[in-house]
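hey can u check if this looks right to u? its 441 residues, i copy pasted from the old doc so theres a chance i mangled smth
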Amino acid sequence: MARFLLLTLGSGGDLYPFLRIGKALISEGHEVTLVTHCIYQKNAEKYGFKFVGFDTLLEYQIVMNDEFQMKMQDPKVYVEFTKRYLFPKLERAYRQIIEVCDSDTIVIAHSLTQALAQMISEKLSLRYITVFLAPSFLESIIKNPGYIMEYLAKELNYLRNKVGLEPIQNWREMLNYYNQAIAFWPEWFASYRSEVDLPITYAGFLLHNNLEVVSDELMHWFEESRPVIISHGTTPAISDSFYSSCISACVELEYPSVVVSKSKQVIPAMFQSVVRHETFLPFSKVMDQAKLLIHHGGIGTMGQAMKAGVPQLILGNGFDRPLNGLYAKKLEVADYLPLPKWTKDDVKSSLELLIRSTSVESNCKEVAYKVSQMNVEDQISKVANTVINTTKLPDVSRVYSMDLSEEAKIQIPNRTSSELLELLKKVPAEKRSQLLKEIRR
């Protein structure tokens, strides 16, 4: 038996995968402690996990209210929030987690909590698995690790100093500090093997299996109507046009539709009598009876539609959603519309194309078969056993050295404007943006 500590934060889409991971580990006789928002304690205990809540109910409510979540879709707001709100609480979370770990604990952490998980792993010499729930989380580390150097390095190193760890200079190396990584999507959906040599297992979509009972009336309605499902997941839409455009397009095309939202008020008043509203739908039980799914681009929702062989229209904005939409579109099982195209006419055109296309129908069936062949629990077990049977920890010595990447070599002495312009002409185009940032400093 091994002891695992699972660390995650965020909305339901960030929690449910860790419940599945923990459940798979418990079934093999391992001990699991879940560290996350306080409101999920009952979920953890239901699955037999030990639990540590790193926030209070008030702290959780401040962060997870709809208005704030809409603002968080702006990357600048997200970075500022991380600095001002999350960092002051990281030390407290660090102290709480250290208390429940011993020398044999294996840490499994959401990539969003990577800095905290790495500190714990480094301090106690623990084996560490990082979890990437969507391609954008992995892609940002592979293709753009400099954002941490630019925005968060000072705060992270301050915290590291407080807990007795050396400051990090080579953030490019630090972001790759783990024994194993699990990417919870299939490799045929998005693969990065040709771009980076890292210990990553592509485990497949980690889909939630609903336990809720579907009423006979609702199931009969789905079977008879074959509706279009309209959902923005557990988060609010950044624009009212998400619902208004999608609903208007469905009404004009005479497609029956059901809106899944906590509030019925997202449905325009003129359509409330013709559009069905549900506060919750167990997608794993009803998705295969739908004509099409319109959604926000969450990877869990997207995976449910792929499993059911249902075409998708993805209106994705913020976080991992746009990239998820683009990958689904590349497979020709979905269309993707960015925020400026959240109009009734654009939505209507996409719906007609998706529903009438025989190639989309064929591709959806092919992808559904591929999803049916996934065994995610088996992949979790293989990664866990690999780490259980290894005693070698990641080499942390390299992260203390100066980053010698080309970007870090750029040094800007005091110069006149004309000299700077001449310097800019000599710099390759791809390096100019970094140089301009240094000049502004």
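The radius of gyration is 23 Å.
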